Amino acid sequence: MWTNIIGQERAKEILRNIFSSERISHAYMFYGNEGVGKDAAAIEFAKLLNCDNRINSTEACDECKSCLEIDSFKSPLLKFITALPAGKNETDDDTNPLEKLEKEDFANYLSEMELKARDKYHKISLQKANDIRITSIRRIKKDIYLTGKAGKKKIFLISGAERMNLQSSNSLLKILEEPPKDSVLLLTTSRINSIIPTIIGRCQKIKFDNLKKSHIADYIERKAEKISSQESEFFSEISEGSITKCNEILEKNFLDLREKIIDLLAAIVSDQHLKLGNEIDYVIGKKDKQRIRQFLILLNIWFADIMFKTSGNEELIINKDKIDRISKFVLNFNSQNYRIINSIEDAIKDLDSNIFPDLILYNLSFKLRSYIQKKS
Fold first, then answer.
1. What are phi and psi of 204, to 5 degrees?
2. For the segment 247-269, what is each residue's pLDDT rounded down to a tens digit?
3. Rounded to the nearest 10 degrees, what angle do helices 337-352 and 289-310 cross at?
4. Alpha helices, DSSP H only, in 224-288?
5. Secondary structure of 273-293 as H, E, C letters
6. pTM attached to this predicted model
7. How far apart are CA 290 and CA 225, in angstroms?
8. 230-237: which pairs have CB atoms within 8 A and are 24 or more residues apart?
9. Running DSSP on this structure, what letter comes out for residue 321?
10. 59: how many CB neighbours lie within 10 A of its CB?
11. Using CA atoms, how far apart are residues 216 and 211, in angstroms rounded to an integer?
């Protein structure tokens, strides 16, 4: 049912109209930022195309055998294609690439697909799965031309289509040039510019927007009941309209990481160098680049909030549950917030350029110390 898709009213209306028109294209490309529901919508569209008991003519019932099988990835009508690790004795034939995976890789794949079946917004993560392999595309070529079930559509969902290499892309292009009428290719991508133009040109494109903060907040409240409404609002603010980023934030305990901002600033303004070293070690200790990047983003948001408090725009503050801390800082310190924010953004760029994280954080800390002065 379309209610399974968070937000995306415009995209859902387009898909309803496509179905109502009975002019189903052979290929669609759902594009937009990561974590906004492209895969979820593709699966819902696959259910609609094959539903045995549609609601109001343009909505899958979610109850018939076809809907339930597609929803659980157990339907012969839906083939899900994603990046896979290299398999053993892999050749250029059309053997099912899953059968070539090492035992551990196959077990991980099954586990990830189970998570995907439970939550269509789950991002599949497989170690060393860098490319959508040409064997996966050749398998599509074998299956797509087989005679299907009367009145049904065979759906081939290529998730993260930007991960096709040139070989895979050229192989898919041959299928797109002569597609069978009883099949539909659904490509989802967060980097449409990484896909070769000839493939883009043969697909009907549907853009997916970033999710509203209210949609993210509703998702958080359903998924994590122990989170307060203020914390939910904070998480929805920093999720940047993406369920994927939201899930990463929830899983990696960014509330704990945010507390380290307060500890780091306390060490900076009090010139406690040993404490500063301990706080930096905590942030970089797990060697998780994404975690360090998120710390810098949180630090950036913190000083933006200080700027909003200073200028009297409290309604724009993101860390609303920390307003007392922010007010205390503004009361006791003068800070050059524009320079600080620019320095943090430079630090994020340095991190993305693979400069040593400890060097980045120490340099940033010294800059912050020069931009913050205690009020007399």
1. -85, 125
2. 877 777 677 788 888 888 888 88
3. 170
4. 229-238, 243-251, 254-269, 273-284
5. HHHHHHHHHHHHCCCCHHHHH
6. 0.77
7. 26
8. 230/320, 230/321, 231/255, 231/321, 233/320, 234/318, 234/319, 234/320, 234/321, 237/213, 237/301, 237/318
9. G
10. 18
11. 7
